[in-house]
Structure formats: structure tokens, C-alpha cells
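Researcher: Checking consistency across runs. Here is Carbohydrate sulfotransferase again:
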Amino acid sequence: MRLKRRRKAQVSGWRVVRRCVLFFTAVCVVPVLLVLLVATDQYMRPVSNHQTYMQHMSQKRKLSLDVSLNQNLTQIAKRLDQRRQHLKKMCKLLGLDKIGNDTLHRPNPWEFLVDNKHHLVWCNIFKAASTSWMYNFNILAGYSPNFLKKSKLVPMTLARQRYPRPSLLALQKAFNTSISFLIVRHPLERLLSAYRDKLQYALPHTYHKKLGNEIIMKYRYKKKRPSTNLPTQRWPTFSEFVDYLVDSARQDLRLDMHWTPIVEFCTPCMFDFHVIAHTETLQEDQMYLIESANLGDLIRPEWRNAGRGTTQQQVAKYYSQLTRSQILQLYHIYSYDFELFNYSIQGYLELGMPDKDPYSLLDAITMKDFRKNNSPKVY
């Protein structure tokens, strides 16, 4: 009995000790926790307020950007409308809006790409942002960027697998339900870009390398010049290329697609394009086009320049190698492109060397248009 009483006393003693410990812990710790909670709340409130403020500012900034974008798109729309009106006016004045059987008056659907899924129609003009928009059309066709990067097939080949060449009837139908566009470039800048890309830097064993060799044989070695004056490069000089181009036009030969005039390539007077983009304002024009077509989630403004350096920076270097009569002859070849898209020869003609024979310049000035068109000329 004594042992039981002793054990009960020990248990009671431990209970008292535990209760005391719990009491003192509660008295000491709870106030500290309350203080920490209050302090933490004071520190967290500014953070919470700051996050709310930042969210508000972000929404305000986005709204401001949307307003700015809408204002910018409105200005771009006005500029594009002016281009459309100018094109229609010049087509009528030059008599290019009448359907006929020649290359100037016969609608040419061959180079168009029609995306019926996204309601987009594009005439692919080589050397006028064609690489950029061939990429975009391939993206819209379902090819992944990684696939396009690794594929060894020509982008045009890939595109034609998804966008076969349309018939004229199918193209006209697509124009009624789609946003149609083409991208143009200053004719002489586009010509220079084509020369540098396809002839000066032609790859071995290609069609253009063979063409370059033929130009050299005809316009360098068959002309009676002192041997000391012969160029040494293994590609045609820009002057030799221009001589070849002028002779081809005089003989009414079919020109290479990379320097064929746009008026024959896309026959823009035969179709009512919604957007006429210029490479000089390409970034803004692309932005407007993509927004109008609601394709902002799929593609973006691109300029994938596959050439070597900016062509604009090379204009003076190359056109100073030509005579003024040669530049005037080029103007005659591309005169309709100049007029339809409101470009000028100013800034180019001044770069040319004075002709040694004044009759050469006179012949270039009075030279008739190479293509058959009975309508009055404006140049």
C-alpha cells in the first residue's frame, strides 16, 4: 500500500511540473507569436499593395499600347488605300486594266499562293520579301519552324505541296473571300538584288552559274576591246548583265522570274488587291496585314534576307558602273512598275557615268517601249 501511495505522489508531482511548463510556455510564446503576426502583416501589406498597383499599371499600359496601335493602323490603312487608288488610276490611264491576249493584259494566276483556310491570297514577287512570306505561308500550311529549319527542300517546293497553283477561276473566287496582297520594291533595287544573289554569287553547277558564263562569253570576250580592259572576275559585271537584259527585252525574250517586271509577273491591273505593301515600309505594312487577317497568333512580321548585305547600301557602288543611257534603258524595261507603284528614277540616273557617245543617250531617251500596248504613255 505504501508503494502505491508513493507512485501516486510521483505521478501527481510530474503532472504539476508539466502544467507549470505549459503555463509558462503559453505566457511567454503566445505574445511573441502575436507580435510576429502583427509585424508580418505590416510588412506584407505594402507588398500586396505594390502588386495591385503593378497589375493596374500593366493593364493601363496595355490599354495605352492598344490605343496607340489602333491609331497607327489607321494611318497605315490610309497610306495603303492611297496606293490602291494610285494603282487603279494608273492602270486605267495606261490601258492595263483591259483584258487581252498579251502578257500585259492576260491575268496570270501562276505565281499566286491561295490559303483558303486562313483566307489569304499572295502573289509571290521574287526579290521583294519573298523569302520572308514563303516562310510565313509554310508556317500557315502546318510546317513547324524546326522542320523548316532542318528541311533541305526549297521553301517554294514545300509551299506548292500545300498551295498548288490555282486556276484563274479559283483565284478570282478566292479574291472575293480573302485578303489579297503583294509586296513591291523599287524596280532598280530589286534588279540589283537579283543580280547579286543569282549571278554574282551564283552557286556552282546551277542554271544561273551557266547563264552567267554565257553572258561573259557574249558581252566580254566577243566585244572588240583591248585585252587590258577586260574584267577579271568570274561572274558577269553589272554592266554586262544590263547589256544582256536590254538585248533580251529588245528581242522580246522571256525574262528570268527573278527580274521579270511585276506588271507581267502578277498582272496587278487584272486583280483588286487589298494590300500593296512596299519594302520601304514593310514592317508597318506587314503588321497591318497580319492584324487585318487575324493571324497575330500564328505568324509575325518577317524579313528573312537571304542575300549578302543590304542592297540599299550597294546601290551607289553598282549603278555608278553603268552609263546614263544604260540606266534609262532599264527604266524603259520597268517603266510600268515605276508608274503603277509610284517609284521614281531620281537618285539613280545621277549615279550613271556620262556617255562618251551622245547619240547613245539620245537613243535611250527616245527608245520605244519593248512591249505592245497601244495606250498612251505617261513618261
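Researcher: Does this match what you'd expect to see?
Model: One thing to look at in this run: The chain is about 55% helix and 5% strand.
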